[in-house]
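Example record for the data management plan.
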Amino acid sequence: MFEKLKQFKDLRSKAKEIQSTLATEKVEGLGGWNKVKIEMDGNQNVTSVSIADDILGDKAKIQDGVREAVNDAVKKAQRKMMEKMKDMGALPGVS
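Corresponding structural encoding:
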């Protein structure tokens, strides 16, 4: 039983280490013909949103651009997460 508790504690420690490492990673997602830029950390928290002045009057373009940029950033953050977890040995059996 104590071995299981130790394994659980080790797993929690590894998860916190990965989360801390990912917090320092940055990705950028682009949308709306690069008129919308979303920056995100490796934990998929949005840290910055930029919208070009020339589309500010067009609600539909802004909405589409934000959707595209967020989706792009999430995909990049997920790739970064997988790379970091693999590098840290957190994905057994993946090489």
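Summary line stored alongside the record: Residues 22 and 84 are 7 Å apart (CA to CA).
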